[in-house]
Amino acid sequence: MVVIKRTSPILLIVSVMLLAGCSIDLSGATHKPAEPVYIFDTPAAPNPAASPATPLPWAGAKLSGNLVYIEIPRKIIKLDLASGQQTILFTTPNNAFVSFAQVSPDGKWIVMAYAPPEDPSMQSINTDLYVMPADGAAAPQVLLKRATPQEDFYNPVWSADGKYVYYSHLIPDPNGSRKYSNYKYDLERIAYPGGQPEKLIDNAFWPRPARDGSKLAFVSFVPATNSNDLYIAQPDGSQAKLVMPAGAFAAVDAPLFAPDGKTITFSAVGGPQLPSLSWLDQLLGVQIAEAHNVPSDWWRVPVDGGTPAQLTHINGTGMYADYSPDGQHIAFASITGLFVMQPDGSDLIQLINEGVAGSVSWTR
């Protein structure tokens, strides 16, 4: 059986860098990096990234606030939606990259999954968690560092009150059939600042708290079957329950609560109970372990269960979304750029047509 699976949380970015497009790793091969040596450029003052187009493509949508996103592969950028001005908040050193960044609820901090350069001659690929001021005035500082070189901490998100950072922890299994080619995922959190890691849920990733802090959405991952499903739980990971029947989609990821907490928007492959693979893939027994690295679309489902509604028909890759502060729009990042749409998927507008990766945060 051939299994299409996520062998590293940075697979998508490495693929873009090497192939200028999306690829899916079938080999499960990994490298064994040297012991990390953390190197930083002296942080420069934030500076304009580009002159805004006139008129702005989204002028008619009356958008406000700022979008903080990652430009592949090395920059965190803030886009002022009123003026169209882009400001570089952070640029990584050579042979380093940042795969995910989210602004804290109070707008003061950015937590990121960041891989500093481990070897000047080799691209770093395994990420730790770092925090830096949201205005880019100082270099990132370590929040949580890997115990072994092959681990990854990724997809960090703030709790609604800013007192915790939730994140996914990818852990290599040295007892697998190929050393360091089999992994497990745990969903964890760490109190901020100064807390200790706390494992909440086995075989889970993609944490996302509700805006009011009452619930936590996440995606399960069952290694034995390479299947995943959408769940909600209490903020501490307890009382987890399925939002949709198990196996409703070939793969789901990137869940996002609506501001009122009544629905969850998520990225998914295919449709409910519908095959998303070609007849040849099905004949060969191909399975999809995660939606993030294959063409997907946005869907929405009530948190209490119900029939999922498809919001887009874009076949996007590497998608991640955030609601506007007023709840009237959704911005999302994908390999093809940065977009905004109504919560029901209508009025889709492309804001940035360059490669965007990992995440987007909509701030005031």
Please explain how this structure is put together.
The protein has helices at residues 11-19, 279-284, and strands at residues 3-4, 47-50, 66-71, 75-80, 86-91, 97-103, 109-115, 128-133, 141-144, 152-158, 164-172, 183-191, 197-202, 204-209, 216-220, 230-233, 241-242, 251-257, 263-269, 287-288, 297-302, 309-310, 320-323, 330-334, 337-341, 349-352, 356-363. The model is unreliable at 1-45 and 274-289 (pLDDT under 50). It has 364 residues and is mainly beta. The protein contains 2 helices and 27 strands.
Could you write a compact summary of the structure shown?
This protein is mainly beta and 364 residues long.
Give a topology summary:
Elements (H helix, E strand, L loop, with lengths): L2 E2 L6 H9 L27 E4 L15 E6 L3 E6 L5 E6 L5 E7 L5 E7 L12 E6 L7 E4 L7 E7 L5 E9 L10 E9 L5 E6 L1 E6 L6 E5 L9 E4 L7 E2 L8 E7 L5 E7 L9 H6 L2 E2 L8 E6 L6 E2 L9 E4 L6 E5 L2 E5 L7 E4 L3 E8 L1
Parallel strand pairs: 1-20
Antiparallel strand pairs: 2-5, 3-4, 3-27, 4-5, 6-7, 7-8, 8-9, 10-11, 11-12, 12-13, 14-15, 15-16, 16-17, 18-19, 19-21, 21-22, 23-24, 24-25, 25-26
Q: Radius of gyration in whole Å, from Cα?
A: 19 Å
Largest sheet: 5 strands, antiparallel
What is the architecture at the second tier of CATH?
6 Propeller
So how many helices?
Answer: 2
Terminus-to-terminus distance: 48 Å
- The CATH homologous superfamily name equals TolB, C-terminal domain
Q: Could you say what the CATH topology is called?
A: Neuraminidase
Q: What's the helical proportion of residues?
A: under 10%
SSE order, one letter for each helix or strand: EHEEEEEEEEEEEEEEEEEEHEEEEEEEE
Number of domains: 1
